[in-house]
Write a structure and sequence with these properties.
Layout (H helix, E strand, L loop, with lengths): L2 E5 L3 H12 L3 E5 L8 H7 L3 E3 L2 H7 L2 E4 L18 E4 L5 H4 L3 H4 L5 H8 L4 E4 L8 H5 L10 E4 L4 H14 L2 E4 L41 H10 L11
Parallel strand pairs: 1-2, 1-4, 2-3, 4-5, 5-6, 7-8
Length: 238
């Protein structure tokens, strides 16, 4: 039985954990506050889940979902994720992370920055373009007519293939969004980011956290990625 390590127990990490146990996977989930703070979440997830340290999640996971603030990635222990398939959900939010010059001037994408901080990981960008509460609501078994899709990007074809298989098992079709240099197409404010999954595209910003999702098939995601224009990151404030 596969084991998914999850570093970060926030909204996205917890949502992916719920999909994993529903798919029959073991889960080892960690956060920065310690395993003892995850008692309620692990009880909710059931017997397939256990709390641990980041080291436990990295060691025991056949793959690892990294779902921590961008500014926290550089604080991970050196070599923690070496050799591991890592699905990174992070985005750059200047209001939280502070201004990062190489992102503001588009020298690199967020994904390229994180990959440079995790040089030994088999790195894939995934689960960063969908609202956390939509993740369990849109998941469907393979072959379902109303299945939604998620984009992934990576410079490692083998890691990308492994990530695609994992995401399929979790309940989503996958769209290959290219390399990490292409991943701006589904970063914040792009046409491939969050609103793509809304049932009502006109939902006001202040209602996004309670918004209703709508089925978002591969063709819709592919179209959004293809039509995306690169965002001027330096003008973003959230």
């Amino acid at each position: 039985m596969a084991t998914l390590g999850i570093i970060g127990s926030g909204n996205i990490g917890s949502a992916v954990a719920r999909l994993a146990v529903a798919a029959g996977m073991n889960v080892v989930i960690a956060n920065s506050r310690g395993p003892e703070t995850l008692t309620d979440l692990v009880a909710e997830l059931g017997p397939l889940a256990q709390a641990g340290t980041a080291e436990d999640a990295a060691k025991l996971g056949d793959a690892v979902v990294l779902s921590i603030p961008l500014s926290a990635v550089s604080g991970l222990p050196d070599g923690l994720l070496d050799g591991k398939i890592v699905l990174d959900t992070s985005n750059y939010y200047p209001s939280r992370d502070g201004r990062i010059a190489e992102l503001d001037d588009s020298t690199v994408t967020t994904s390229e920055l994180v990959q440079s901080q995790l040089p030994g990981a088999q790195y894939v960008k995934a689960f960063n373009n969908i609202l956390a509460h939509h993740i369990p609501l849109l998941a469907r078994p393979s072959g379902s007519a109303d299945r939604s899709a998620l984009p992934v990007a990576s410079d490692n074809p083998a890691a990308k293939a492994e990530a695609e298989a994992l995401i399929d098992a979790l309940g989503y079709d996958v769209v290959d969004a290219g390399t990490l240099a292409d991943s701006w197409r589904f970063e914040p404010d792009s046409s491939g980011y969050t609103r793509l999954y809304l049932a009502d595209a006109g939902t006001p910003d202040d209602q996004l956290m309670t918004s209703v999702p709508g089925t978002t098939p591969k063709t819709k995601v592919e179209s959004a990625l293809k039509s995306a224009s690169r965002v001027n990151v330096a003008e973003r404030v959230f």
